[in-house]
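ping. complex inputs:
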Amino acid sequence: MLNKKDNQKLYPVDPTVPPGSIGILNGRVIDPVNGTDDRLCVAVDKGTIVSIAPELPSGFTPDTTIDAAGKWVVPGLMDMHVHLREPGREDRETIETGTRAASAGGFTAVACMPNTNPVLDEESKIRYVVQRGEPCTCRIYPIGSITKGLEGKELSPFGEMVRAGARGVSDDGKSVISSMLMKNALNYSKSFDIPVICHCEDSDLTKGAHMNESAVSTRLGMRGIPSISEEIMVARDIMLAEYTGARIHIAHVSTAGSVRIIREAKARGVNITCETCPHYFTLIDEDLIPAFDTYKKMNPPLRTAHDRDVLLEGIADGTIDIIASDHAPHVSEDKKDVEFEAASFGVIGLETSLGVVLTYLIGKKVIDPHRLVERMSCVPNRILGLSGGTLSRGADADITVIDPDARWKVDPNCMYSKSRNTAFDGFELQGYASCTISQGRIVYERGAA
Amino acid sequence: MMGLAIQHLLGLEGVSRDDIIQILDTADNFYEVLQRKIKQVPTLRGKTIVNLFYENSTRTRISFELAEKRLSASPLNFSASTSSVKKGETLRDTIRNIEAMKIDMVVVRHGCPGVPFFLTQCTDAVIVNAGDGAHEHPTQALLDMMTIRQRLGKLERLKVAIIGDVIHSRVARSNAWGMTTMGMDVTLCGPPTLLPQHSESLPVKITDNIEKAVGDAHVVMLLRLQLERQQGGMFPSIREYRERYGIDLEKISAMRDDVIIMHPGPINRGIELSSNVADGDKSIILDQVTNGVAVRMAVLYLLGGGENA
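pong. complex structure:
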């Protein structure tokens, strides 16, 4: 079992040096966009995929060769819901450390949420994130806020933010409570063909609550976050999307009711997509007993076994479009060393997401490898209007090599994220990214002898 | 002395019948001590016990402090309102600093469920839960059971109705676990807004119908309406609450002749109980208060590794 950090190598990126050539040999190349699933060799030169064929092109002598026999070669994974904490809480994470964690998790692109301090609610702040991300090991696509300062009062300047590089808008962390303002946001977003990413929570129903409302919260004497606090807003936002014809993406779906509402809306033809996170389809509220484990405190909260099972059905039947980590780093004084009610919501996930998906979705045959690639690469790229998520000849060389058989144990001390608040500490997982190639450069390797 | 299976008293969920019986039997012995002229025994001499109270409390804190003094322990009182908590110190730092001063036991009250468990992760001291949010208040439930056993001679197969603000009540939860472990039949009752939405995890019956709840109950326990914890709109008016769920002589007349009335205190007089019921012959509220000291002596003695009483 490989578990040590010395089995992992993260390479610095020097943007002044052009990428060389790479030959990825004999891997199972899976590219749903092109319908590819074959044992093939991939040739990469100067940051571009130049060939995908049974052999490398004749005369092509790569600077680096990767033996991918027994491994999957897939379009670079994308996590469209992460928190990088910069600017404002660089003690928890920075753009640099967050992207290193992303690379180690097999991601070649991430979209970062705007609830930083200051909030990403204008052009200059979006531009700051884009520039800070340029020398990093993975691509960064900032999400601008829906409302200025996340205050739910005035719309942020979507056009200016999009011009600076924003790929969507969200007030993640809270809902836009005013239905009128949300209607306007949806209508306005249509000019830019960006998704409005909805954090669905009726905050009137969640005030002072710290975990799921269920038999477990009753037993522990905690005020609960009811499922309906999410479902009411999922339903409202879907109705507003249907009314305006705008495109919405529902973030971190956690309840059975939300899955049902989304499934019905999709059947009606509403233009929506949604995501769930690895912790929601693996862990449940009962996991909080008896330890009041603050590393399992998140918003939305871990729900019941029934919710988890319905989420798995939703992933299997495609109601749930993508898997995102909602990577939310916190330092120990905000998370571990405090009583449950004082602990911050959120868990990190960039470095465990793929392993959890491989173990619990592929390993338990909820989805097949094609669906994994769709849900973690093709579809998130498509939602954000990006060209990534494919291994087509001529495409940018963002590639993830997955070893589906490697067994490993989650050890927070072996992580690249600045924070340690994983809900999967000690979990034994099967499968990880053995090599991450970003823009034609090998940025991460794992499992070397 | 047999010794308890538990090392800390964090709640009554999961505490065995044998442990509860041992605590109640020991409390009976300490009750006898409290009838003596000299009400002190040397059993915890040399032990330092910190009363760590992050929430206001008068009777529980005094009851613990008295219990500690009557066991000859050295109590140390910590109140969050006058402490470094006001300066921003975390609970973990507070407990570790106190532990560095070499203490043996911590009695903790806190508004957040799970804090007693959290403290077991921060210190080697023995932890006794004196109330954690709406989670548990185990010594209250133990003193309730002691008082019932003292009055009715047994616990098994008795029917208990616990009436009122169940959703916010740590007393209700601890009694639900403790009493059902002891073979009692517990019904929780209150307006639907003050009952938990999901009660299937508790080993009790739940109803909003007070007549059904008290109909053949041997014990009727009223809970304090926690006015300070109410969110807006949980019930329309105090008057309506009193009419439906308050116990007065008229409601008593429809109960068993030998019913006993209990309340963990402090009482909102005229709301949960009319004064003539609170002070009447069916009320054993002051016995609960007396027994609180004996039960807390027993818990501290058994967990503190004291010498024979």
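The interface with chain A takes residues 13-14, 90-92, 110-115, 117-118, 132-136, 170, 173, 196-202, 231 of chain B (CB under 8 Å).
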